[in-house]
Amino acid sequence: MGYVRMGLSIRDRHGRIDKERTELVRAEIRRRDEQARLRRRWEAYETRWKVLCAGDAPVAFGDIAWPIHNAPSSVQDLYPEPIVQFFQESLQVSGNVASETDILRSALLRWHPDKMSMVFSRTVSSDMDSVREGVNIVFRALHARIHCIKHEAIPS
Known about the structure:
The chain is mainly α. It is built from 6 helices and no strands.
């Protein structure tokens, strides 16, 4: 694989370029790279949550482990679609055994406004409204997705 990753091609036993096998290996490399990227993103999210929960320092909007790809600079950067997509992508990581509903329920518990009191109590006053609004946006996005899943599961 390293050979192909460097941009070289696989050759058959006669020394001719084997385009089909080379493309199969390139596709596998892309798949593995994507898996690694998704795993790193999820692990970074979980690590940020652990640090946030373990600390006792004041919390600003930017300190929250927001579940989107690019860290938001304000609450205006939080939208339901990227939030749900963030959790759905975690399902694609190899070795994941949780269902979408399981992951969303766990996230819903984490992001429930009543459960965020330890974060709210440490939030700097200038960011309090933004943090509360952001938490509500995440919670509503997760709740709406779970509601959709339940309705998709009901046969017509």
